[in-house]
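Example 4.3 (complexes with small molecules)
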Amino acid sequence: MPPSVEPVPSTPYVDLDRKAWAALSESTPLPLTDTDVERLAGLGDPIDLAEVDAVYRPVSRLLDLYVGATRGLHEASSTFLREDTGSTPFLIGVAGSVAVGKSTTARLLRELMARWPATPRVELITTDGFLYPNAELERRGLMDRKGFPESYDRRALVRFVSKVKAGRPEVRAPVYDHLSYDIVPGAETVVRRPDVLIVEGLNVLQPARPTSEGTSNLAVSDFFDFSIYVDARTDDVRQWYVDRFLSLRATAFSRPESYFRRYASLSDEEAVATAERLWDTINAPNLVQNILPTRSRATLVLRKGRDHAVERVRLRKL
Ligand SMILES: Nc1ncnc2c1ncn2[C@@H]1O[C@H](COP(=O)(O)OP(=O)(O)O)[C@@H](O)[C@H]1O
Ligand SMILES: CC(C)(COP(=O)(O)O)[C@@H](O)C(=O)NCCC(=O)O
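Answer. The structure with PAZ bound is encoded below.
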């Protein structure tokens, strides 16, 4: 008899459809309470609470399991090295296209993770704070490339994340304002040793670039303990982008300090055409050239359908 050989998995992923993933919710502890529902509704995101319970609550449980296991590993290696290093924040990256729902997902996970006893302090930062200011983008000829990897101060972002991961008591990040479409001079977000830091941004899963000497620097993705890619069909994301543009036209764009105030007076047709042009010339090329190629690097991929409901969940297990 030949020795039995364990089958080698043909893929490093577990792929579950919505039904199989949502079934995990039944055996997931911490059902939502009325207070949670109120807090989640207070976020102002158009998220259906049944969806939160069926899809995002099991995601937060999985994250809680990873937090526990990562702390155990950290303790074991500290004991081995005879080092007494305290625990460091657990870092989660949230990546995906413009308008796919990264901010909504990140805000939801912040609320859900904070309910778990191991991680009451969850903070969230977005990488837009590390975009170069408009004046610098103009100097570099990058005003039409906002959101492309080269439009960020990537070194500053890596420095920020590595300080957080090293457990520094206070780490500061610059702030971007969507209304003025620019970095806010002098403004800062301060991160104070949270249990979990969620880092949300288009390009957070990009690998490090080789240096001119052929060596490689670190990328922000090298510091993540877990990463999530929010995914959807490109046509659907384009539509969500146009819809969001139309609702902003009716609200934020009409404020005097808005960079886009010239768009407030557009007719419906002109507004749709403007949004489509911005999508087709900036955000779609960035998605295809830079963002989509990083999807396979994520620990978890949440694939959304046209109505924003998650249709498939793919977890990397190897
Ligand atoms: N789960 C959801 N259900 C319904 N609408 C959503 C959901 N997630 C996002 N949206 C909508 O889709 C658009 C893009 O979401 P947002 O979180 O702002 O995307 P991103 O941060 O990726 O640019 C917004 O108009 C948002 O209200
Ligand atoms: C600010 C953004 C680059 C997103 O930044 P992120 O937080 O993902 O790093 C993006 O929302 C954006 O404004 N893109 C420029 C093209 C446009 O106006 O849609």
